[in-house]
Automatic annotation (TrEMBL):
Belongs to the thioesterase family. This is Thioesterase. SUPFAM superfamilies: alpha/beta-Hydrolases. PANTHER family: S-ACYL FATTY ACID SYNTHASE THIOESTERASE, MEDIUM CHAIN, THIOESTERASE. Pfam families: Thioesterase (PF00975). Signal peptide: none annotated. One of its GO terms (biological process) is lipid biosynthetic process.
Length: 245
């Protein structure tokens, strides 16, 4: 099954925005964005295996396997692209961008959201001994997914995805290499205790084209709290650059 979901097809769009979900997340986290973005941008959300319509696909616990699977399909997207990754998804997007850059088909810009730069957090491992510890961590982050995890039946379905993604992050081992040729916009929530503006500056070592840092109101999942502000920022970024869209 394809890795990509396009909720609002815009075949004439000037740009495809490829969005990478957070740990435990799914493509539907970006469904609302598809209608908030201007007609010139088509949103393409990545669907990791083992969730929603890919529920029967085995969950992945190896970071390289995940990125390679996505990169195998990225060349099929028509026209220019930009990548947006939130939390774990920012690192997935970064590694996908590095591979696509090497193929001469990298994104025009990487939006790295709520994630410490890979060269600083060289390993992303998060381990917990008990389910209570997992829940305490998730509660500290907030987000729309928390409500489902509070329901014991839904938690039984959702926890395996989270645990697999935690193991996947533990398998990530950053390797220094060529910097990205595109600029990076680094985004943070004003109330996010896991990532702030000081952390954002470290992303500069991952690109030859410079970074822009942005802080939006909200916590770690500010992307859910103020989605319109995020999509406006994305659209404004390309307008300011004097290029379509």
């Amino acid at each position: 099954m394809s890795w990509f979901r396009t909720y609002t097809p815009r075949p004439q769009a000037m740009l495809r925005l490829v969005c990478f979900p957070h740990a435990g997340g799914a493509a539907s986290a970006y469904r609302e964005w598809a209608t908030l973005l201007p007609e010139s941008i088509e949103l393409v959300a990545v669907q990791y295996p083992g969730r929603q319509d890919r529920f029967h696909d085995p969950l992945l616990t190896d970071f390289t396997t995940l990125v390679d699977g996505i990169v195998a399909e990225l060349p099929r997207l028509q026209g220019p692209t930009a990548y947006f990754g939130h939390s774990m998804g920012a690192t997935v997007a970064f590694e996908a961008a590095r591979q696509m850059d090497a193929l001469g088909n990298g994104p025009r810009r990487l939006f790295a959201s709520a994630r410490i730069a890979p060269a600083v957090a060289t390993r992303l491992g998060i381990s917990f001994d008990t389910e209570d510890e997992v829940m305490a961590y998730i509660r500290s982050l907030g987000g729309a997914g928390l409500e489902s995890l509070e329901d014991p039946d839904l938690r039984e379905l959702a926890l395996p995805m989270l645990q697999a993604d935690f193991r996947l992050m533990e398998s990530y081992d950053y390797k220094a290499g060529t910097r990205l040729s595109c600029p990076i916009t680094v985004l943070a929530g004003s109330g996010d205790h896991t990532f702030g503006s000081a952390d954002a500056e470290h992303w500069a070592q991952h690109t030859n084209a410079g970074i822009v840092t942005e802080t939006l109101p909200g916590g770690h999942f500010y992307t859910e709290e103020v989605p319109g502000l995020v999509t406006d920022l994305i659209a404004r970024t390309f307008t300011t650059e004097g290029a379509h869209p």
